[in-house]
Each structure stands twice: as C-alpha cells, then as structure tokens.
Amino acid sequence: MESCKPYRVAFFLLVLASVANAEDWTQFRGPRGDGIVREAKHPETWDEESNVIWKVALPGRGWSQPVTAKGRVFVTTAESAQEEKPRRGEGGIVRDALDPKQHEYRWLVLCLDAASGNVIWNRTAYEGKPRTGKHRSNTYASETPATDGELLIAYFGMTGISCYDFDGNRLWDKDLGAFPTQAGWGTGSSPVIHADAVFVQCDNDKSSFLVALDKRSGNELWRQARDERSNWSTPYLWKNRLRTELVVTGGKKMRGHDPQTGEVLWEMSATGRTSATAVGNDELLYVDSVDWFTGSPVRLAAVRAGGAGDISLKAGETEGPFIAWSVTYNTYHNTSPLLVDDCLYMLEQHTGIIRCYDARKGKLNYQQRIPEATGSTVSPWTAGGKIYCLDEVGRTSVLESGPKFKLLASNRLDESLFWASAAFTGDRLILRSMENLYCIGERSR
User: Fold this and answer.
1) What is the dihedral of CA 282, 147, 51, 384, to 10 degrees?
2) Residue 7 pLDDT greater than 70, yes or no
3) Between the CA of residue 352 and those of 198, 329, 367, 397, 429, what are the distances in Å?
C-alpha cells in the first residue's frame, strides 16, 4: 500500500493543477469579455434530470449574469413583495402591469459556494422605492457584477454602486445619479474592472457619461461626458497588437478610449441605439448598433487596430484606412457577437436565427434558423470547440464551430425565462433563469 502513495500524490497535484488552470468568470461574458471558455469545457448535453449538479431558488428578479471567483458564485437581484414575476402565457410573456416605482425593493448581493450552491452570505445593498422606472421586461438588477478575485463590484444602475470583500463586508458605495432613460426602459450596462479602475458607462436621455472609479475607494479617477442618449451595452477592453483600449459602443458613435485617461482615441459613426458589446482580437474589433425606430439597415464593421480621430465611413463606402470591411443587414438583437477563430456569430432577438460571418472578409458564411429555437437575449458562448446558444425558454442549441451550420445537440431546462448570460466555474456551467440558478457539470467527476 505504501507504494501507492506517490501515485496518489501525483493524482492530487494533477487535480490541483486542473483547478488552478480553470478560469474564473469575473465579469460580463468572462475574464476577457468575449464569451470564450478557454481552459475548461462543460457537458455538451443536460436536462433537469441529468448533469444538473445543483439548483438553487433565487429571491427577487434580475437579469444580471452570475460571476465566479475562488470557488464562489456571486449574483445580484432586486426583491419586492409587491411585484409579480414574469411568466409565459399563450400570447407570449405576461408581466407585471403595475408601476414598479410604487413598489418597495431590496437590492441584494448573494455569495454562494460553487461546489454545493449553499448561500455563504446575503447582503442588502439598498432599500426603498426606485428612483427611475423600467421596462416591464427589464429588472432593477440587470447589470452584471465584476470581481478581481478580492473585491466584488455590485452595480445597480440608477440605484448605486457598491464594493464588497469576499467575506461580505461593504467597503464603499457611490451614487452616480439618477437620470431618465428612453421610454423609461431602465438600465443594463455592466461595470468592467481593469488594473485599479472600475469603468461604468451610464448612457441616458439627459446626461450621459463614462466614468472610471478607483476600485478600492470608489473615488473618481476621470470622467468623460458622452454625446449619447440611452444605450445598454457594456464597455469592452480591447487588447490588440498595439495597445489596450476601452471600447464603448453607442447610438451616435463607436469610440475607443485610453483606459488610463479617458481620452478618445478614435470614433466612428453608428446607426442607432445599442445593447450589444463589442468583441475583438489582435487585429480587428467588431461593432454594430441597431436603429429600432426607423428600421434602417444595421452596419456591422471590422475596425483595425491603431485608429486615430474620426474613422467614419463616407456614404457608399464599405471600407477605409481603419475599417477592414463593413456590411449592412436588417435585424434586431440584444445579444453580443461571438468571435471564434475566423468566424463571427450573431444571434437575432426574436427569430432564433444565427448568422456566421467570415471575420476576416465580412462574407456571410451562413444564415440559419436554429431548429425549435425561440428568440434570445442571452449572448452565445463557446467551450470545447462548440458554440452554445440559449434561448429564452431554456433550450440550449449546441452547434459545431466553423463556417458551416451543424446542430449537434439541443438541451432543455423546464423553465420559461432565461435572459441572463452564462457563467462558468472550472468545468461547470452556471445558468440563471428568472426563478433559479443552475450548476451544470459531469456528475461522474
């Protein structure tokens, strides 16, 4: 028996190395904001009876994505005893018709054990009546928190932003103001952490701005006024071959900022309001926006690294010195694009249609309705060389990565509302519905 000890030690070290190599999912769409799971993979198939490690009921309402770090799962929600939860009826989604501003709310931050789903701590960040309204399909906790592995930044839009340590101690909070949004639809942009700064994009119909806060104190490092009205996209840190840029999409302009000073490095004309977050690689950045009211074509553009000044295309142009290619199409979507190798994937809002573009040339590889899929507000992700698309009724379609459409599997959870993007902890997938938090993984492990 003594001779087995070296093998046991070696196996234990191998397990530790596997855990150490697995990435934490620290912000909206992961550590790089791109929806790519690099060091781990989760099961390809699951349902309510198989590969669900744990399932935990959540209080309140929220579309914020969970985030993970150091074996913990963090999630935010807004709870009111007076507000009904949306449900799906024969005519579509039925939502509370009452004015939410008349309700009393508690804005909550929860910390769960990633292995068991047990709640480690639960903190009330704010209490009272909301200062602004929201769309009936939105929530007062739609902004995904962010963490650097030591601090947790919980942002609740017009309610406030707070910082906690991993023991649940509140370190600071800040009121960034309350402003009207388009048609009272509310907010949704999530914070991003880079180095010692937290970046928050606050686009509204009165006084839009981009701000950098010191992550340890909440003190303001810099602020840039934005000539924008309401948008719901999250800033993206584009680490290209030349520099790191803070990319902020908008309805009037797409812009790249110096993250240390807030200085605008380049800007490009946009075509409407946007909820989608940009994505990029060493060479190119992919951005688009949607004109919901006029129905004008959407312009999807591939921006080259190193842009300076106004890089907007002129009428009739499809490329320029800093624009590798651009295409126009008619669609509506809230999901962010997914870039995998030389393919760029985009999900439509209501139809279950996925588009795949050649990321280098802008050529459309395919446009396909995913069988049985409904509309989606959940951004697609990739793990283990496969593409995952979750629709609002809990069906996740698994596609083969590459320029040709191939459906590999279709998984269904027995709930009707999934609007929060996915998160990961090691080889486990974390999904949030309106009612529950699911942890999905191989039971044999």
Assistant:
1) 10
2) no
3) 34, 16, 11, 10, 22
The CA-based dihedral angle spanning residues 435, 422, 272, 258, taken in that order and rounded to the nearest 10 degrees: 130
pLDDT tens string 241-296: 999 999 999 989 999 999 999 999 999 998 888 889 999 999 999 998 775 555 56
CA nearest neighbour of 431 among 139, 79, 54 = 54
Which of 290, 325, 321 minimizes the C-alpha distance to 306? Answer: 321
Amino acid 263 reads E
DSSP-based three-state secondary structure for 16: helix
The structure tokens 């995998």 sit at 340
440 Rama class: left (phi>0) / alpha (psi -120 to 50) / beta: beta
- List of residues 6+ apart from 375 with CB closer than 8 A: 348, 349, 350, 351, 352, 391, 392
Token pair for residue 367?
């446009």
Burial label for 20, CB within 10 Å (0-12, 13-18, 19+), is exposed
Structure tokens at 300: 């999807």
